[in-house]
Design a protein that fits this description.
alpha/beta; Dehydroquinate synthase-like, alpha domain; 45% helix; globular
Length: 383
């Protein structure tokens, strides 16, 4: 059976001598596979993919924190019928740096990677972001696949084709849009993770549910506590579907920088940076959602019952709903970098209710400080 190529492109050229109108088109086609135990089928799934790409080699770039998964994945990839090489990348956000990207280029060059070498990222969100960026830039573009091993990566970094590295204390300041050849999401890979990592992923699911899926929000709300395997797989499928729906209208962020998917990120990204990236991404996003919710309530966009419901579901899943007072000033200063990235105003996404959000163009310092004070008072409870 003839399969469609992963990427098709072309130019449409009109005009006369001295002036041409050029329309460049690119169509990327790929599949996101989701299934419990899917990692055991990696060889079966990679074989046709490597064949379609005419890949001479597979290079697996593995997060050092998930090396216990690497032997099985490498063995399965070997059954695809092409040589497999493995590269270990330092775990955590530190690998998402200019130095980390250069190191990845050097390793690919030393391995003799070509334009058709298939890269495979194995690990959390940092390695997914790094490999996406490396694949976009090395030899002007290599095919790649993602095997995210953390819940937050399965719901965020592996979806949407965005890569990024941190620069000058600003998260994802350098990066590219470069869609994968495939994504393989296996909820079973998250079962060896500490509970804190699962909470980080649930924060991403809560985020997209608040934006676009009230039914998913209700499911997460009812599942507070320990999740069963079937509950987790269902939440992953629902959250991935919701995120893809939100990306569909503008996948390259060309038409509008006021994106609802930034819910929690305006505050969350500066919070991560202010902690030296010691605070996990999901926890920072959760705190950012809490701040945005309280700001939205103060602005009259979010009714009290909806504010309380959103804050309660974050707390029920063990996620933070406030911020260390010592970080306030650093966060506020870093909001200026977000304004630059978004071409002027902050464009703060605020929830109205689960399934519906609106954009508040910007906030001033009193609104920011008042929200933090309210959240801290709520945490302390009645005096």
């Amino acid at each position: 059976m003839t399969r469609q190529p992963h990427t098709r492109s072309g130019l449409t050229i009109t005009g006369t001598d001295g002036e041409f109108s050029v329309r460049a088109q690119r169509l990327d086609t790929y599949r996101i596979h989701i299934g419990d135990g899917l990692s055991g089928q990696i060889g079966t799934l990679l074989k046709p993919l490597a064949g379609d790409l005419a890949a001479p080699r597979i290079v697996i770039l593995a997060d050092a924190g998930v090396l216990h998964h690497l032997p099985a994945i490498a063995e399965a990839a070997g059954s695809a019928g092409v040589p497999v090489a493995c590269v270990t990348v330092a775990a955590g956000e530190a690998s998402k740096s200019g130095e980390g990207l250069i190191r990845a280029w050097e390793q690919l060059h030393q391995l003799g990677a070509t334009r058709r070498t298939l890269l495979v990222a194995l690990g959390g969100g940092a390695i997914c972001d790094l490999v996406t960026t490396a694949a976009a830039t090395f030899m002007r573009g290599l095919p790649y696949a993602l095997i995210p091993t953390t819940l937050v990566a399965q719901l965020d970094a592996a979806i949407g084709g965005k890569g990024g590295i941190d620069y000058q204390e600003t998260k994802n300041l350098i990066g590219a849009f470069h869609h994968p050849a495939a994504v393989f999401i296996d909820p079973a890979l998250t079962r060896t993770l500490p509970i804190c990592h699962l909470r980080n992923g649930i924060a991403e699911a809560i985020k997209v549910a608040i934006i676009a899926d009230p039914d998913l929000f209700a499911t997460i709300e009812a599942a507070a506590g320990e999740l069963s395997a079937s509950q987790l797989t269902g939440i992953i499928k629902g959250a991935v579907a919701a995120k893809l729906g939100l990306l569909a209208a503008d996948p390259f962020e060309q038409r509008d920088l006021r994106r609802l998917l930034n819910l929690g990120h305006c505050i969350g990204h500066p919070l991560e940076a202010a902690t030296g990236y010691l605070m996990p991404h999901g926890e920072a996003v959760a705190a950012g959602i809490a701040v945005a919710t309280v700001i939205g309530h103060a602005a009259g966009a979010c009714a009290s019952p909806e504010r309380d419901r959103i804050l309660a579901v974050l707390a029920a899943h063990g996620l933070p709903t406030t911020i260390d007072p010592g970080l306030d000033e650093a966060i506020w200063q870093r909001l200026d970098a977000i304004r630059r990235i978004r071409n002027g105003p902050l464009n703060l996404v605020i929830p109205q209710r689960p399934g519906n959000c609106v954009i508040l163009p910007d906030i001033d310092r009193p609104a920011f400080d008042n929200a933090l004070r309210e959240l801290r008072a709520r945490r302390r409870g009645p005096q």
